[in-house]
Specification:
Layout lengths: L3 H4 L12 H16 L3 E3 L9 E6 L11 E13 L4 E8 L2 E11 L1 E7 L5 E7 H14 L14 E3 H4 L9
Antiparallel strand pairs: 1-2, 2-3, 3-6, 4-5, 5-8, 6-7
Length: 169
């Protein structure tokens, strides 16, 4: 948090045959797994491109979260399908040791491209939708603390005593 790289909007991927693309995707995957995360965005590894990765079968930090398919999402577009929002606790490898209560749209449709340049879209809700919104915010230079409505709901993990059974991010 505070890095100009993370505050800068990312650029679209225009060449899906770029030999650096598989290297970036492998780095995203390795970093996400190493950190025990459920998602990661290219700006978090110093790459200013609109690429996010997310997904897990099981995750120790979120034991009750339903699985999310491992997804590489390039040049994403998010559509909010209604006005229903829900608050949930979020954390981030770019904001280590802190968590905050963040409102997010409950149901979204997202579209974009996979690593081969094939377009796809999904309609999702709940934790899956929260993860996608959180990661895509990185592509616009937004970190989750900027979304918090009540700063009394932002602090160090060990001070907040958050119950991870609620599937917080």
């Amino acid at each position: 948090m505070g890095s100009q790289e993370l505050a800068t909007p990312s650029l679209d991927v225009v060449d899906f045959s770029d030999p650096d693309l598989p290297i970036i995707i492998a780095d995203l995957h390795d970093t996400m797994i190493e950190k025990g995360g459920v998602g990661i965005a290219a700006p978090q590894i110093g790459v200013n491109l609109r690429i996010v990765m997310f997904g897990f079968e099981k995750n120790e930090r979120y034991p009750n979260a339903e699985p999310v398919p491992l997804t590489i999402l390039i040049n994403p577009i998010i559509e909010f399908l209604d006005d229903v929002m829900e608050e949930g606790w979020e954390g981030c490898l770019s904001v280590p040791g802190l968590r905050g209560l963040v409102p997010r749209y409950k149901t979204i449709k997202y579209s974009g491209y996979n690593e081969n340049g094939i377009q796809f879209n999904r309609t999702v809700s709940g934790f899956h939708a929260r993860v996608v919104q959180h990661e895509c915010d990185h592509l616009d230079g937004i970190l989750y603390p900027q979304r918090i409505k009540d700063m009394r709901s932002f602090g160090f993990e060990d001070e907040l005593n958050i119950n991870n059974e609620k599937n917080e991010l």
